[in-house]
Amino acid sequence: MRDFLGLGLQPGDVIVIWSSRLIGFMVNAVFGIHDPATHVEMVYDDGFYNISSDIGGVKLRPTARLFKCRKWVVLRNKKVSALRVGQIQGEAVKYLGRGYDYALYALWVARVSLVLQPLVWLMFQPFRNWLKREEAKRFTCSELVVQILKDLGVDTGIDEPHNAPPDNLLQAARACVHDWSFIAGGGRL
User: pTM for the whole thing?
Assistant: First the structure.
């Protein structure tokens, strides 16, 4: 296995990123999380490509672009690192081509205003069942990684993968230090 950037990345490693201050501000306003992580990806191969969901859907993307971000950390789960590479990639590849969950971001923005909350709730009630079915087909970055980890048998402590902001995965890893290890970190602060 090749060593990318000297980090020793392995399939299944999780990269948590603080890329955008604007998105961080929105997540802080909605969830009250100070300096939240804004993006999560999972290493797909030997560190050159990650599986990720962002605008455009679930795709394999080059890893190198992430290390230009404001901050980043690489986390490794002991259970995932013990699995065969083919098993990790097999679970991840199922989601390639799935759509991006734009509705979640729309709801996050709408939740900022307490005045809009009842209106948003009333608007989405007739579409509740349709939204649940659609949400199972679409992913934000953190939802994708939490779902893959769930498929691999990792208990992240996140009950609903389809409602997990990026910072929840980081907090889950911090809470279960016996299952997760910090591999590397850095970025431009």
Answer: 0.77
CATH of the domain at 41: 3.90.1720.10
Q: Which residue is listed with tokens 């909350």?
A: 117
Domain that holds residue 167: 4-186
**Torsion angle of alpha carbons 87, 88, 89, 93, nearest 10°?**
100
pLDDT tens-digit profile of 76-106? Answer: 999 999 999 999 999 999 999 888 876 655 5
Q: Read off the pLDDT of residues 9-45 as tens digits, 9 standing for 90 and up.
A: 889 999 998 876 766 676 666 666 667 788 899 999 8
Q: At 17, is the secondary structure helix, strand, or coil? A: strand
Q: How many domains does the chain have?
A: 1
DSSP 70: S
Q: Kindly report the number of other CB atoms within 10 A of residue 136's CB atom.
A: 12
- Is residue 30 within 8 A of residue 79, CB to CB? The reply is no
The helix, strand and coil proportions of the chain, stated in percent and rounded to the nearest 5, come to: 45, 20, 35
The residues, ordered by sequence, that sit 6+ positions from 20 with a Cβ below 8 Å of its Cβ are 38, 39, 70
Contacts of 83 (CB under 8 A, 6+ apart): 12, 152
Kind and range of the H or E element at 39?
strand 39-43
Helix segments in the chain, DSSP class H:
21-31, 78-81, 85-93, 102-111, 116-124, 128-135, 141-151, 166-175
